[in-house]
Design goal:
The complex is a heterodimer of chains A (about 325) and B (about 280). Chain A is α/β, with parallel strands linked by helices and about 325 residues long. Chain A has two domains: about 1-220, P-loop containing nucleotide triphosphate hydrolases (Rossmann fold, 3-Layer(aba) Sandwich); about 230-255 and about 270-325, no CATH class. Helix content of chain A is about 30%, strand content about 20%. Chain A has eleven helices and twelve strands. Chain A has helices at about 45-55, 80-85, 105-115, 120-135, 140-145, 155-165, 185-200, 210-220, 235-240, 245-255, 315-325; strands at about 5-15, 20-30, 35-40, 60-70, 70-75, 90-95, 170-175, 205-210, 220-225, 230-235, 305, 310. The two termini of chain A are about 30 Å apart. With about 280 residues, chain B is mainly alpha-helical. Chain B has a single domain, classed as MetI-like fold (Orthogonal Bundle). Helices cover about 70% and strands about 0% of the residues of chain B. Chain B has nine helices and no strands. In chain B, helix 5 (about 135-160) packs antiparallel against helix 7 (about 175-215). The longest helix of chain B has about 35 residues, at about 65-100. Classes of the chains: A alpha/beta (about 325), B mainly alpha (about 280). The interface between A and B is medium-sized, with 37 and 24 residues.
């Protein structure tokens, strides 16, 4: 099964600057062709850093480990090789559509820039931009293609950013918190659009988010990250029925429930995520975990234990499996 | 795009009018000048402004109006040469410094600091002493002392822009470094640079005229505004027009280019960019 994965990440670690603390530590995952993968976790859990490091987009960071795209090693690869992958094979949608567009260039130019860099003529690239804008649902595309980003609303900008990522027809679309800057109604439209584009093009999709609600609707498989580590990997259906890590359970408890009488307070996970460089011994989650035992508090962070439909990094995994069995 | 929305007061309209007028005169001045600016005519010395000589004549009977027109070309052309050269040198050094970082960045910036330490007037005096006074020495002195400002400004602007999300986004599309510089980094710095350039046109004109006035720039028979004032100042009590009109030309040009710079600063302010056109 491993060989069919289009993207294979092996013990990827990211360190920023001179510090020895790792923002991402030894994470491994694979992505199959046409699959949709969600990566979820709190701010600072290393979701974005891990994805940007794969494309060599992190500055002042040391990246270790391996990330292979179609067997080709990306970590440590030169710009020449990466520029053949960036945009063309892996498209990226950045988090903030207000910051991801250059204010002084037209959206048409920005969508087609990658193509122009590949030697497309201006005319052909512009025609392609108009077609893409139509595909992502920007109305009156032939006129709008010459407009500047400030003339677009947030939702429309995010569509433009998606059109940029789709322009070179990549095999993988990576969306880093694609809906965080948008209001709820627009969020659904944008996610539907990405999902639909992925299905039409047979593209794989990675969605990074802190919103489990999004993941539940749009991804096949889900990875939960905490303090730079993967703590659980599960399928969409299983994650919600049978979370295999107390952190996942905590996150799920934080979601408002439809049908509750409205007098309950929302549950929260007590405490704060650990600061890099001051990680607790043992399981990184144990200071906040309501199931923590003395065995959880010492030694290294527990390894991921494979199970039938995923992986979990909780040493009390058997308990959860038994409880729900 | 309505022109009127960019100009908010009669003063601004007048400033743009004079700035444009000076550029036009610099271009066509010699074609419309009624007399030879270097034509000496001792029978017509110190004639006050009249229908024949609009701005009067100077100590050797040369037509001041024609000389002011020729002076517009000389002054603006020298200012333009200075500005273009310093902008190109400064932007290249600023971009290289900002993008390289590390040791090269430090070396370039300290190198810039060294040149920044030279006062333009003193250096021009030195050049005049070494190579002989002349407009070229003045231009050289200005170029050498003026580019560091652009190098530092450009570096600051590029450093601010280079980590923005849209630069990462361009990189993620597989856009190369050179293309990113030309189409994203420099265009995003141009608004500030344009303002600085228009303000500096006025400053350079003043310095060139000043250098010519003290005798290290353009030399006296040359139709340059500063040199004309220097030439006429001994006769100021009987022939005010010889110094007045070139002085007025310097004043109007400097003030109008400064005001145009202010207008550009307001209109190109990134905070106001979102305004609908």
């Amino acid at each position: 099964m491993q060989s069919v994965n289009i993207l294979e990440v092996e013990s990827l670690s990211v360190r920023f600057g001179e510090s020895s603390a790792k923002a991402v530590e030894e994470i491994s995952f694979g992505l199959a062709k046409g699959e949709t993968l969600g990566i979820a976790g709190e701010s600072g859990s290393g979701k974005t850093a891990s994805i940007l490091s794969i494309l060599g987009l992190l500055q002042r960071a040391t990246v270790e480990g391996s990330a292979k795209f179609e067997g080709q090693e990306l970590i440590g690869a030169g710009n020449k090789l990466l520029n053949r992958i960036r945009g063309k094979r892996i498209g990226l949608v950045l988090q903030d559509p207000f910051a991801a567009l250059d204010p002084v260039q037209t959206v048409g130019y920005q969508i087609s820039e990658g193509l122009r860099a590949n030697g497309w003529s201006k005319k052909r690239a512009m025609r392609h931009s108009i077609q893409l804008l139509e595909e992502v649902g920007v109305p009156s595309a032939p006129q709008r293609v010459n407009a500047y980003p400030h003339q677009f609303s947030g939702g429309m900008r995010q569509r433009v950013v998606i059109a940029m990522a789709l322009a070179q027809d990549p095999d993988i679309l990576i969306a880093d918190e694609p809906t965080t800057a948008l209001d709820v109604r627009i969020q659904k439209q944008v996610l539907d659009l990405m999902k639909q584009q992925c299905e039409n093009r047979g593209m794989s999709l990675i969605v990074i988010t802190h919103d489990l609600g999004i993941i539940s609707h749009y991804t096949d498989r889900i990875i939960i990250m905490y303090a730079g580590k993967i703590v659980e990997e599960s399928t969409r259906l299983k994650l919600f029925d049978q979370p295999l890590h107390p952190y996942t359970q905590g996150l799920l408890d934080c979601l408002p429930q439809i049908g509750s009488n409205g007098n309950d307070y929302l549950k929260t996970i007590r405490g704060q995520p650990p600061i890099l460089g001051q990680l607790p011994s043992g399981c990184r989650y144990h200071p906040r975990c309501s199931f923590a035992e003395s065995a959880c508090t010492y030694g290294p962070h527990p390894p991921l234990i494979p199970i039938k439909w995923g992986r979990s990094a909780c040493i009390q995994l058997d308990k959860f499996l038994d409880k729900s069995a | 795009m309505k022109f009127g929305t960019y100009l908010r007061s009669p003063l601004e309209i007048a400033a743009v009018f004079f700035a444009v007028l000076m550029v036009v005169l610099a271009l066509i001045g010699p074609l419309i000048a009624p007399h030879d600016p270097y034509g000496v005519d001792f029978y017509n010395r110190f004639i006050p402004p009249s229908a024949e000589y609009f701005f009067g004549t100077d100590a050797t009977g040369r037509d001041v109006f024609s000389r002011v027109l020729y002076g517009a070309r000389l002054t603006l052309a020298s200012a333009l040469v200075v500005i273009v050269i310093v902008a190109v040198i400064g932007i290249i050094i600023g971009v290289v410094s900002a993008l390289s970082g590390g040791i090269l960045d430090d070396i370039l910036m300290r190198f810039t600091d060294i040149w920044l330490a030279f006062p333009p007037l003193v250096l021009a005096l030195g050049f005049a002493a070494a190579f002989g006074a002349g407009i070229n020495a003045a231009i050289l002195a200005l170029v050498i002392t003026w580019w560091p400002g652009y190098a530092r400004l450009t570096r600051a602007l590029i450093v601010e822009t280079k980590d923005k999300d849209f630069i990462v986004a361009a990189k993620a599309m597989g856009v190369g470094k050179f293309r990113t510089i030309i189409f994203h980094l420099i265009p995003n710095s141009l608004d500030v640079l344009f303002v600085q350039l228009s303000l500096d046109v006025a400053a350079v004109i003043l310095v060139i005229s000043g250098l010519s006035f003290i005798g290290v720039g353009a030399q006296i028979p040359l139709a340059e505004w500063g040199a004309m004032i220097a030439d006429g100042r001994s006769a100021m009590s009987r022939a005010w027009w010889v110094v007045f009109f070139p002085g007025l030309a310097i004043l109007l040009t400097a003030v109008s280019f400064n005001l145009v710079g202010d207008i550009l600063r307001r209109e190109l302010d990134p905070a106001l960019r979102r305004r609908e056109f």
